Amino acid sequence: MQIKYSQALREIQQDTFQWLPDLYSAEFGIPANPLIEERLNELGRLHLILSGEIANWPGTYDNVAHQFIRRRQKEIAWNQ
User: Fold this and answer.
1) Which pLDDT value is given to residue 20?
2) Where are the chain's structural domains?
3) Which of 8, 34, 63, 70 is the most exposed place for a label (fewest CB within 10 A)?
4) pLDDT in tens, 29-57
């Protein structure tokens, strides 16, 4: 997700932005495909298999990222 939202994350983290390490792609066999949507879809497929929960996992990941970014943007605006 940090690749997909890198511009927004850089803006909201300002001088503290740091890339998080990719800890699980190799473990879960997610290819190092440059197309982030394909990687997220594969992660969602694996999430479904491992959890047994039927959900739109990639959509869930996007929703959480949007909520986090929006919250940080509001916090920054409130503190100015």
Assistant:
1) 86
2) 6-78
3) 34
4) 888 777 889 999 999 999 999 999 999 99
What does the alpha-carbon distance between residue 30 and residue 41 come to, in Å, rounded to a whole number? 10
How many CB atoms lie under 10 A from the CB of residue 7?
7
Strand (E) positions, the chain? none
User: How high is the pLDDT of residue 74?
Assistant: 95
CB 9 within 8 A of CB 2: yes
- Closest by CA to 14, choosing from 79, 65, 62, 66, is 79
| Per-residue pLDDT at 25 exceeds 90 | no
Phi, psi at 18, each rounded to 5°: -140, 140
Check residue 15 and give its pLDDT: 82
DSSP helix/strand/coil, 4 = coil
